[in-house]
Write a structure and sequence with these properties.
The chain has ten helices and six strands, in the order βαβαβαβαβαβααααα. The protein has a six-stranded parallel beta sheet, with helices on both faces.
């Protein structure tokens, strides 16, 4: 699996290269600035991009903006964003186009190698990998917005929150101490209440997560 990596801190960048390659990934480019990232993404068209939000030259949101520009050229490009802190604006920008293959992790999670590698694989496969702290902050504003999201029961919101983290049905069942069948029923109800048209369950699962995090149910692109 081919990866483009963008991280301006040399030691962290080298550590991520070694970690990814140790788990079977091929790092086709490792860059440290926003312009270099955009060029690398458009040139290599990788299976997944792992991107620090803040890159030179501005050290503001260069990495995110380069990834967003690349996604406009390469539809559905999987992007896993790394950030030092939870930034709701960054997370919402990343989610705005309503496509899958999206992740947002705090850099602290990188030090858990298994969790990080699992997130990269899930995003590359077209899924989501949202940091629980990011979800919690997005929920603070999402829960106050009107629309179909308000139709969800408290348990359905719990299930959807765990879906956003990237949990499988069996993992959700274990976390909530319920049966797999109960989880499947909750997810079916979620799809119905969020007015997601019949499609492959994997696609509807991602759309449900994006709808939830964006707070814009029924308006997927």
């Amino acid at each position: 699996m081919r990866v483009v990596l963008a991280e301006d801190l040399y030691l962290l960048r080298e550590g991520l290269i070694r970690l990814l390659e140790a788990h079977g990934f091929t790092v086709v480019a490792a860059v440290e600035t926003g312009p270099e990232l955009l060029e690398a993404l458009l040139t290599h068209r990788p299976d997944v991009a792992v991107v620090d939000v803040r890159l030179p030259p501005t050290l503001t949101d260069e990495g995110l903006q380069a990834a967003l520009k690349a996604r406009r050229e390469i539809q559905g490009l999987p992007v896993l964003v790394l950030s030092q802190h939870v930034q709701q604006l960054y997370a919402r920008e990343l989610l705005a186009d309503g496509t899958g293959g999206i992740g947002y992790l705090l850099k602290d999670r990188v030090f858990n190698a298994g969790q990080f590698i699992d997130a990269v694989r899930r995003v590359a496969a077209g899924g989501t990998a949202m940091d629980p702290d990011v979800i919690a902050q997005l929920m603070q504003t999402t829960s106050r917005r009107p629309g179909p999201l308000l139709r969800l029961s408290p348990r359905e919101r719990e299930v959807l929150e765990l879906m956003a983290e990237g949990c499988s049905n069996s993992a959700i069942a274990a976390r909530l101490s319920v049966s797999d069948g109960a989880v499947a029923k909750h997810i079916a109800n979620i799809f119905t209440k969020l007015e997601l048209a019949p499609a492959e369950d994997a696609n509807r699962r991602v759309l449900a997560v994006l709808t939830y995090l964006n707070g814009t149910a029924g308006q997927s692109s």
